[in-house]
Specification:
By secondary structure, the chain is an alpha+beta fold. The chain contains three helices and four strands; from the N terminus they run H-E-H-H-E-E-E. It has a four-stranded mixed β-sheet with strand order 1-4-3-2. A hairpin with a 6-residue loop joins strand 3 and strand 4.
Length: about 100
């Protein structure tokens, strides 16, 4: 494989950056947040990055296919997170927009 082809292949395999909305960042900065919830959100951001937003088990409505929902914790016991896949941006990325805690 040529150097250019190898570089292109590596870029295709890279994940997309995953950012937090302001409200999610504030939640994560709250010293009273449960370490279990903090860890679940951090792990989700890594999974979103690695799968380019295609987290297994996510749901999306037919009207808003870019917006996805995933349970947090085993069987969603911690809550639900919503994220948006921005695939058509110059730099494709995802944003965790909301966390609904149970």
């Amino acid at each position: 494989m040529s150097g250019r082809a190898s570089l292109l292949s590596e870029c295709e395999e890279e994940g997309w950056p995953c950012y937090f909305s302001e409200s999610v960042a504030e939640l994560l900065a709250d010293p009273q947040i449960s370490p279990v919830l903090f860890s679940a959100i951090a792990a989700l951001s890594v999974e979103i990055n690695e799968t380019r937003g295609g987290v297994p088990g996510h749901t999306a409505s037919p009207q808003w296919t870019q917006q996805r929902r995933v349970p947090l914790g085993t069987d969603g016991i911690l809550g639900v997170a919503e994220y948006v896949v921005v695939a058509d941006a110059e730099e494709p990325h995802c944003v965790i927009t909301r966390v609904q805690v149970y």
